[in-house]
Amino acid sequence: xxxxxxxxxxxxxxxxxxxxxxxxxxxxxxxxxxxxxxxxxxxxxxxxxxxxxxxxxxxxxxxxxxxxxxxxxxxxxxxxxxxxxxxxxxxxxxxxxxxxxxxxxxxxxxxxxxxxxxxxxxxxxxxxxxxxxxxxxxxxxxxxxxxxxxxxxxxxxxxxxxxxxxxxxxxxxxxxxxxxxxxxxxxxxxxxxxxxxxxxxxxxxxxxxxxxxxxxxxxxxxxxxxxxxxxxxxxxxxxxxxxxxxxxxxxxxxxxxxxxxxxxxxxxxxxxxxxxxxxxxxxxxxxxxxxxxxxxxxxxxx
Length: 302
Ligand SMILES: [Zn+2]
Hints:
Strand 7, helix 8 (about 195-205) and strand 8 form a beta-alpha-beta unit. Strands 1-2-3-4-5-6-7-8 form an 8-stranded parallel beta sheet, sandwiched between helices. The chain is an alpha/beta fold. It is globular, with a radius of gyration of 19 Å. The protein has helices at about 15-20, 40-55, 55-60, 80-95, 115-130, 140-155, 175-180, 195-205, 225-235, 240-255, 265; strands spanning about 1-5, 25-30, 65-70, 100-105, 135, 165, 180-185, 210-215. The structure holds zinc ion. Zinc ion binds near residues 8, 31, 33 and 105.
């Protein structure tokens, strides 16, 4: 069993869900993020958050995958201050929804004053709602930005055990682990932080508080990054318990602190029944045969 604790599933296809389920992914966490271009109105955020806690959760379940999400204002769009202020007002409503396991992904992009302001305000929300935090660390000036993300989280009253620092690399991992934070790694295909380097990090640092994810989205990315990394670890002689921790158990422990995610959700799931509708809408298109697991007596099996 695997968990992919960072995937932007709204931009993926049903083929991805089927392939993930076949590869052993039982649960995913979808962080709220930007959409490739800036939104212009708070209503766009409202509808996006509604999709994360609503239709996408339903859609994943139709393929046998439990879907959780994190809700937050991303760092890029924090730079539109008037809009960011409006988004802050709707966050508490969504943070209280079922299946929301953290505030996130939040943090720094260009490390501007506006980003700092809304990162702090959202950390405060996390303290108030007693939720973990998923931190997106910047791609530029990463080492400085990562240290600063942790400094500010502590300053705002978050214990490191409630904060998952994502998008780590070899430069940042030691400090993140030494300071007691969770260290997540995003495995993008054809980049320096690929599967091979991930295996070496686990070999060097062990499995404590290390988390593997795909961060798959609408860009060049791989929805199977977690199971593939696990397979490579196995081939390279990483012990099974370390694979289990980094590709499943650590994510469950970190985000399970929300009280919204438990192993029972996928060990005793409701059977897949693709006849089910969400507000009248189906995942099936004209004439497709629904998948029905553990059908009740009297169901038509073709
Ligand atoms: Zn992301």
